[in-house]
Automatic annotation (TrEMBL):
<keyword id="KW-0732">Signal</keyword>
<protein>
    <submittedName>
        <fullName>GDSL esterase/lipase</fullName>
    </submittedName>
</protein>
<dbReference type="GO" id="GO:0006629">
    <property type="term" value="P:lipid metabolic process"/>
</dbReference>
<feature type="signal peptide">
    <location>
        <begin position="1"/>
        <end position="20"/>
    </location>
</feature>
<comment type="similarity">
    <text>Belongs to the 'GDSL' lipolytic enzyme family.</text>
</comment>
<dbReference type="InterPro" id="IPR035669">
    <property type="entry name" value="SGNH_plant_lipase-like"/>
</dbReference>
<dbReference type="Pfam" id="PF00657">
    <property type="entry name" value="Lipase_GDSL"/>
</dbReference>
<dbReference type="InterPro" id="IPR050592">
    <property type="entry name" value="GDSL_lipolytic_enzyme"/>
</dbReference>
<dbReference type="InterPro" id="IPR008265">
    <property type="entry name" value="Lipase_GDSL_AS"/>
</dbReference>
<dbReference type="GO" id="GO:0016298">
    <property type="term" value="F:lipase activity"/>
</dbReference>
<dbReference type="InterPro" id="IPR001087">
    <property type="entry name" value="GDSL"/>
</dbReference>
<dbReference type="InterPro" id="IPR036514">
    <property type="entry name" value="SGNH_hydro_sf"/>
</dbReference>
Length: 350
């Protein structure tokens, strides 16, 4: 039934397209490793995925910097919107000329709403991602004019995807005793909400009008989180999931307040918590054989440099696994998540 619904949603999206053109002129992506399409390849950081076995199931079977065996949920979203290529990673050599007319990807693994999270991993903070977006606009004014494209439409009619917050908790708050002691999870969420609201306001001021922001996933169900925080249990860590739910409730309330206060803004919260939780707790019903262990290596904790060509135990068929590495979904899971994003984000393209 889930596959049928997803198929029908894609058909609806395709039927809305006219003359083979995408539903929107451009797509912009901001956030962390869940959406990084290769920007960290160009940074001095350990948080990279530009080596095998990452990318083995991608179009050219080569690593691109995506933290996945293949496509990200944002890649499938671009396809669902009718794009025949993906918004290029802004720091990549592909981000030039006409390629920029369909948007750009500013995501950076290790980034987050909390400024210091990005500093810890030498990632691109959301503030810096905004600066790159301003730089992008200055470039595209000239490119659009040369190609008789409508710059205003590219900016105001585009879809903006924002996906962050997981790194703030899993790669900073939960592992930093000073931070954990200074703030309760609730207080830390409030800090992140302030940063999120400021980010959206700045993005709006730069012309964004159709923004989709993803919730936190069930943090306590990620393989690495269970391994590190699960007290030798193979079950999702309830405390982490409860904190994610609390954050997501605040995200909904803050987003509603922002939409009410900013004229013409469409701001939709895209839920990935429940869809991913369903995949983890009911894998067989969704076509998966394994949800506790990831495909790469032992599947218990590996990610980034720990997930490499020499990792012992890497699975042969990632499509049977909900997770590719200790923190990130497989391409097969990403496709299901993207179809859920399409259903919850239809108002952005209507």
């Amino acid at each position: 039934m889930g596959s049928l619904v997803s198929f029908l949603l894609v058909i609806i999206a395709l039927s809305l397209q006219t003359n083979g053109q995408p539903l929107v002129p451009a797509m912009f992506v901001f956030g962390d490793s869940v959406v990084d399409a290769g920007n960290n390849n160009h940074l001095y950081t350990l948080i990279k995925a530009n080596f095998p076995p990452y990318g083995r199931d991608f179009v050219n079977h080569k690593p691109t910097g995506r933290f996945c065996d293949g496509k990200l949920a944002s890649d499938f979203t671009a396809e669902n919107l009718g794009f025949t290529s993906y918004p290029p990673a802004y720091l990549s050599k592909e981000a030039n000329g006409k390629n920029l007319l369909i948007g750009a990807n500013f995501g950076s693994a290790g980034s987050g709403y909390y400024e210091y999270t990005a500093k810890l991993y030498n990632a691109i903070s959301l503030n810096q991602q905004l600066k790159y977006y301003k730089e992008y606009q200055n470039k595209v004014v000239r490119i659009a004019a040369a190609n008789k494209a409508n710059f205003t439409s590219i900016i105001s009619d585009a879809i903006y995807l924002v996906g962050a917050g997981s790194s703030d908790f899993l790669q900073n708050y939960y592992i930093d005793p000073l931070l954990y002691k200074a703030y309760t999870p609730n207080q830390f969420s409030d800090i992140l909400m302030h940063s999120y609201a400021t980010f959206i306001q700045h993005l709006y001021a730069l012309g964004a009008r159709r923004i989709g922001v993803t919730t936190l996933p069930p943090l306590g169900c990620l393989p690495a989180a269970i391994t590190i925080f699960g007290s030798h249990s193979n079950k999702c860590v309830d405390k982490l999931n409860k904190n994610a739910i609390s954050f997501n409730n605040k995200l909904n309330a803050t987003s509603q307040s922002l939409q009410n206060g900013l004229s013409g803004l469409k701001l939709v919260v895209l839920d990935i918590y429940q869809p991913l939780h369903d995949l983890v707790t009911k894998p067989a019903e969704n076509g998966f054989a394994e949800a506790r262990r990831a495909c790469c290596g032992t599947g218990l904790v590996e990610t980034a440099i720990l997930c490499n060509a020499d990792s012992v135990g890497t699975c042969a068929n990632a499509s049977e696994y909900v997770f590719w590495d200790g923190f990130h979904p497989s391409e097969a899971a990403n496709q299901i998540l993207a179809n859920d994003l399409l259903s919850s984000g239809l108002s952005l393209i209507s």
